[in-house]
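quick q for whoever's on today - can somebody do inverse folding on this one?? i tried earlier but teh output was garbage lol. tokens:
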């Protein structure tokens, strides 16, 4: 493999890892309440 192939492979792997970290962070247990709260707030009656 030449240098360009290795660079593209490392770049692709780093993008996949970054995407996985973002997804893991978004769906972590600590953020669950903050993420779900607006959905239930929208359905509440203001009366």
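ok took a stab at it. sequence:
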């Amino acid at each position: 493999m030449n240098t360009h192939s290795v660079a593209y492979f490392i770049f692709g792997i780093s993008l996949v890892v970054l995407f996985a970290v973002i997804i893991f962070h978004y769906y972590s247990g600590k953020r669950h309440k903050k993420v779900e709260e607006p959905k239930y707030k929208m359905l509440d009656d203001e009366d």
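fwiw The chain has a mean pLDDT of 87. also Helices lie at 3-26, 32-43. so keep that in mind when u check it
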